[in-house]
Amino acid sequence: xxxxxxxxxxxxxxxxxAAASPxxxxxxFAQRAWALLQPFFVxxxxxxxxxxxxxxxxLNLLTVYVDVLLNAFQRDFYNALETRDQAEFxxxxxxxxxxxxxxxxxxxxxxxxxxxxxxxxxxxxTTRWIDGWLSQRAYYRIELAGGETDNPDQRxxxxxxxxxxxxxxxTMGLLNSVVTLGSFVAILWAVxxxxxxxxGDSTITxxxxxxxxxxxxxxxxxWLSHRIGRPLIALNFAQQRFEADFRYGLVRVRExxxxxALYHGESPExxxxxxxxxxxxxxxxxxxxxxKRLIWTQSFYAQIALIFPFVVAAPRYFNGxxxxxxxxxxSSAFGQVQGSLSWFVSAYASLAxxxxxxxxxxxxxxxxxxxxxxDETLLRPExxxxxxLHGVRLDTPAGNPIVAQADLTIGAGERVLLTGPSGSxxxxxxxxxxxxxxxxxxxxxxxxxGVLFLPQRPxxxxxxxxATVSYPALDGSFSDEQIVQTLRExxxxxxxxxxDEVFAWDRRLSPGEQQRLAxxxxxxxxxxxxxxxxxxxxxxxxxxRALYELLLARLPEAAVVSIAHNPSVAAFHQRRVELVxxxxxxxxxxxxxxxxx
Length: 597
Description:
Elements: H1 13-20, H2 29-37, H3 46-83, H4 86-134, H5 138-145, H6 152-192, E1 195-199, E2 202-206, H7 209-229, H8 232-255, H9 257-263, H10 266-318, H11 324-341, H12 343-346, H13 348-373, E3 381-383, E4 388-395, E5 401-409, E6 415-419, H14 426-434, E7 440-446, E8 451-454, E9 463-464, H15 465-470, H16 480-489, E10 502-503, H17 505-508, H18 511-525, E11 529-533, H19 541-554, E12 559-563, H20 567-570, E13 575-580, E14 586-590
Parallel strand pairs: 3-7, 5-14, 6-12, 6-13, 8-11, 11-12
Antiparallel strand pairs: 1-2, 4-5, 4-7, 9-10, 13-14
């Protein structure tokens, strides 16, 4: 419908304010993150989900077990090299071949089944969020309310993907670290032996000293990584929003290419896109600097860890108790223990991205919950025998009146013309009759089915022409013969043989062709009540009269309600009602007899 200049986007005041700054739902971050994680595992897909999860966990545990066997192999292999035992060296090569084969098989299926698990989880979670977004027209209300819940499409498509992938990778990484720590700490404790030193008159012995060294090393690295990397959470959150805003701006240019070209609007469009790009680049520059500081820390930490166990264990090796194989086993075990204890260090950047992603999903969920919480205050239609307004007041989201008083009933087969000055609230009144304007008071009645609205700019979904003409009915609801005949009757003979072509038809058809296609859609769907909001504004008088004549001839029992300024359209209506502007909001009154020409 063509929005009136004084008619802001339809959203209830309370819900709009809530969506603009959605309140946080109760619970800690961990509790709310768990609320995102848990539903898939108790859904109708739970057995598949739990089976895949158990298999992935088992394969991760097998990976750790193979690492333990490889650690023991390293000791025997290097000892064989040190003693120049060729027979033992050959046996260790065959041993390695078997371990390598097992490792490859486990790695391949761990990767494949992990991705399968992520995909199934993502599809299930995305379907659930799409249902929540589309239910009760939340997509419409939350988008027009604006505020912090930007780019819901990006949150559903990209953030859910990141959430599932990062949750699985981080969880499996943490599990591997815990199991690896449990497996290798005993090995490191045994092979590193005690460290004795004299302090004053006392001799102090530290059993399994390499374990304590690894622990202190990891704690220091984790603390330093958190101190340096903490800004990444907020920067990642903002970066996802700036990326989505920039992508949305590019899509808007593509979708409105003809209008921009007609206005020669390249300069302002370029300025707008570059402004978004500047925001994106500025935040990314801050993100790069934060990541650079973190990578400095992680790189120093990782490189020192390569040589650190040799430095610490060297005295015992050069003094004789350790063999070369023992030293290599200590190095390998220290690396595994230190790596396990340092999971937080290595995963910090991913954790920051995961936290930012969860925050975006939770804020979106907060906005949806705020809209649901405000449903009690909405102007919601009741089921009735005919479209009707009883004592209805329509307001802006801020609470300012648009229409102060409206009483109107559309009887079966009636033809009603709605008039009024531009900005008086005609399109807002149509939205109320459609049941999508939720802000106001009074009672709106709407039949459960048989109502169709034709706005000035019809919505044409991407798909085949057959599906586009049939909309909102499903593709296949009408025969090709019906569709072809109707297109020809609506003066679109050039489209009659293109039913299987798939395009973005709103960019292929002129505004006039789109409006004629909308009339074809109405003739096919055969509504009992048809509302037309400037539905022939892009057509000439002859086409407008021809389409209205066709409409009334093909749908003689349908009620037709029109907003139109074209006198040739007014003649097809029996009754006229008018919105008269007044202080405190327009009022709907019956026009004097004879006003419909």
